[in-house]
Amino acid sequence: MITIPYLTAVSTYFSYGLLFAFGQLRDYSRRIFDWWSANNLHGYAPICLAHEDFYIRRLYHRIQDCFGRPISSAPDAWVDVVERFSNDNNKTLKRTTKSTRCLNLGSYNYLGFGSYDEYCTPLVIDSLKKFSPSTCSSRVDAGTTSVHAELEECVAKYVGKPAAIVTGMGYATNSAIIPVLIGKGGLIISDSLNHTSIVNGARGSGATIRVFQHNTPAHLERVLKEQIAEGQPRTHRPWKKIMVVVEGIYSMEGEICQLPEIVSICKKYKAYVYLDEAHSIGAIGKTGRGVCELLGVDTADVDIMMGTFTKSFGSCGGYIAGSKDLIQYLKYQCPAHLYATSISTPSAQQIISAVKVILGEDGSNRGAQKLARIRENSNFFRAELQKMGFEVLGDNDSPVMPIMLYNPAKIPAFSRECLRENVAVVVVGFPATPLLLARARICISASHSREDLIKALQVISKAGDLTGIKYFPAAPKKQEEVKDTIKLD
Amino acid sequence: MDTNLVEMFRAGLNWVTMALDAPSARVVLFGVRIQWHIFVEVLLGFVIVILLSQKSYKPPKRPLTEQEIDELCDEWVPEPLIPPITEDMMHEPPVLESAAGPHTTVNGKDVVNFASANYLGLIGHEKLLESCTSALEKYGVGSCGPRGFYGTIDVHLDCETRISKFLSTPDTILYSYGLSTMFSTIPCFCKKGDIIVADEGVHWGIQNGLQLSRSTIVYFKHNDMDSLRSTLEKIMTKNKRSKNLRRYIVAEAVYQNSGQIAPLDEIVKLKEKYKFRVILDESNSFGVLGRSGRGLAEHHGVPIEKIDVVTAAMGHALATEGGFCTGNARIIDYQRLSSSGYVFSASLPPYLASAAITAIDVIDQNPDLLVKMKQNIALLWKGLKDIKGMSLASDPESPIVFLELEKSSGSTKEDLLLLEKMADRALKEDSLLVVSSKKSFLDKCRLPVGIKLLVSAGHSESDLIKVSESLKRLASELLL
């Protein structure tokens, strides 16, 4: 749980209040200025109302250079970040032709498949030459190739379920599958910090949505009991079905879901479990099979397992794994399967080859090495950051590490300072996180070497000192002096 | 006698009044003489105050006891997650063993492919394969991140600039999946309370976007401009416009469900008269319609600035994956932060973006591809014009040739099974891949179902003759 120090909370509110006040002042003067110049809308309502994009215009644009940084090489451990400049105070940014080589701590490249791979890429190029980048057709018409069929078998075997269905985008998987499985008269109970794709899919289904406290099985049980006893709102009819949606690793917290308790509660109350393993498949567990393997949950107990291939497999797309009947029904009804273009064939080949490498079926032990390396790297990095006094979230073994920043001014300061020292980090603020809880998120990869991590630690420590984000006392056994003076900018 | 009584009564009354007035006869409070009725009124006031402060009667609340809750939980039986699997759900699609070009291989046999939206025959083009190979060697396959967090690769920015240059629009934004383009764009601009007038034949992606936007949706008859005009008229008279109410018309350039082409010039005239904005989906018309393939605006001679938002999926004429949205700078900039399919999802794999750039270059340099495709459509129309049991329902210039059933059996399910049988027989007996309509229960479109043929510039004349003969034969066998 995040416990924000009182003084930090007050200063963060004050900073936001100041930014808000200045933004309103500028909006007001802009309105007066525009009143004099002609209005060229001719009777149409404005397409974006003033208050809807207030945040974008007055707060986000000031720090726009910290987001959306273009790169000009593969998203590997070291990446070329393109330099940008602005002539109008950060409102628009233009590319230059120069780029700096930076250590990449922001891309989701957990097992290092994000760039040219000696086993995977030649196979991908072969399949590209044979099948072309796209089939231009949906899966049911002429979009199923032998590679797609092989991919679904391979994914099902890897995840540990009888069958699987693959779509071309992870986000659309959630939006298209949840409405097929549950509709009006059903209940979806989702974790309070679930991803936007799950929220959109749940809204699109028409079912009633209830939220339980993040990762708290006791609260889930209370909500379930209450809801089953009460029934549907207003009519009090019994619910048609109940589905509990959780994620394997929560991408903004780095926490691993408490799956064994949640599964046992759902079994007791006869609810269906939907597990979204976008970040955890391939990254945790002894053979990379995700949170079920790590926590010892039988895959037959989880009804629907969903995941994406973007993070650990270096490709694109999403999958759903379940029983044979479930997958057959989804193939018959799921809109993403019936109407959308099938996943690109070379991407499918990349996933198959990546799974083969992870399982060691390509004849080498690179897969086992990668899995061991990502575990070691994550645990080492997290321990070192905590020793330095940073507030780091997330459980052990999780490759996602958010470092708390809180104050809005520290967001660009930290990001720019790290970039100056050639380390590329990702900073996240409102609206992806709650208003007060801005953070910097580190994603460790198996392709980071120990020297890379040590350099990263040095740079982050220096930037942390400059911005004053070492909220906890540093471990005393280091010979550096205790940090009792915090420099504020 | 009675005057006596009256006098006595009056005297009694006077005496009572005096008696009651006596205590306060000379009291003057705040300049007002106090009289006896003041006491009565004060007493009444107290009674009212006491009554109001009493709690009203509520029947006692009896919440469920723990034991009752446990019993209810034990008794509750959920529905199964999926309905029981029936025979028709087990249908397997054909598995291709080579690229999905005009000719492909299924089960070892060579098959003529009319089921891929490969309108200009760019599948298998060597320039595309070359640029993809070099992109794969440089960037790997995936982009490993959303656009905001180091997932923006320079090919994405180049692709966006190239599309803007091709269509002469100020700016473009790239999406990683064709289907998600529409259902991310629409909720960005349409919020609760706005009014959207949409064609009833739009595909599922648009329907999902309309549902997610929570605006008021009004459907008009498929591709019927009179219906559109009367709907707009009705809306404008009902809502004496509020200043901040936004109004949109949503249409597709070439409808995926019926092959009709939207009459853009009339839509633009109506839009300007009633002050609506137009959102147009050009998935099946980009690279196909117009003299140089610039889409529906060029086809009808309408300047593209008049269309407010243009979206398209690239999985059709451009033979790659993903989608884009183009329009003026304000609209595109707004989507970069508020469109959920752009912000919360990984970006397009770089090799697909470089394929898109190369495809547009090829279209620019080879206008004869369009001519060939239009010739093929005309030939196919000639071959199919006297088919029995089905009628050509699409526009003569659209690359989607749609044969709808003339006589429906009454139930959509039966129709779909019949069409599926027809497509299976076409594959087995004549080695032809055609599209039979498929419907998910989530799809609200009620247009008639039929067989779709997607014409490509790579088809030869013999292919077209073969498919016409085969369909005519199958239609006469199965539909009469």
From TrEMBL, chain A:
UniProt entry keywords in alphabetical sequence: Lipid metabolism, Pyridoxal phosphate, Sphingolipid metabolism, Transferase
Task: Provide the Aminotransferase class I/classII large domain boundaries.
Answer: 101-460
Q: How does the entry describe its membrane topology?
A: Single-pass membrane protein
Q: Note whether Nucleotidyltransferase occurs among the keywords.
A: no
Q: What CDD domains has UniProt attached to this entry?
A: KBL_like
Q: Where in the cell is it found?
A: Endoplasmic reticulum membrane
Q: Could you confirm whether the keyword RNA-binding appears in this record?
A: no
Q: Which reaction does it catalyse?
A: L-serine + hexadecanoyl-CoA + H(+) = 3-oxosphinganine + CO2 + CoA
Its UniProt pathway annotation is:
Sphingolipid metabolism; Lipid metabolism; sphingolipid metabolism
Which InterPro entries is this protein grouped with?
Aminotrans_II_pyridoxalP_BS, Aminotransferase_I/II_large, AON_synthase_class-II, PyrdxlP-dep_Trfase, PyrdxlP-dep_Trfase_major, PyrdxlP-dep_Trfase_small
Q: Which PANTHER family match?
A: CLASS II AMINOTRANSFERASE/8-AMINO-7-OXONONANOATE SYNTHASE (PTHR13693), LD36009P (PTHR13693:SF3)
Q: Which family does it belong to?
A: Belongs to the class-II pyridoxal-phosphate-dependent aminotransferase family.
The identity of this protein, by name, is: serine C-palmitoyltransferase
From TrEMBL, chain B:
Listed SUPFAM superfamilies: PLP-dependent transferases
From the Swiss-Prot or TrEMBL record, give the protein name: serine C-palmitoyltransferase
Q: Which UniProt keywords apply?
A: Acyltransferase, Lipid metabolism, Pyridoxal phosphate, Sphingolipid metabolism, Transferase
The record's section on Pfam families has: Aminotran_1_2
What species is given as this protein's source?
Answer: Brassica cretica (Mustard)
- EC number(s) from the headed UniProt entry: 2.3.1.50
Q: What class of enzyme is it?
A: transferase
Keyword RNA-binding present in the record's keywords: the answer is no
Pathway as given in its UniProt record: Sphingolipid metabolism; Lipid metabolism; sphingolipid metabolism
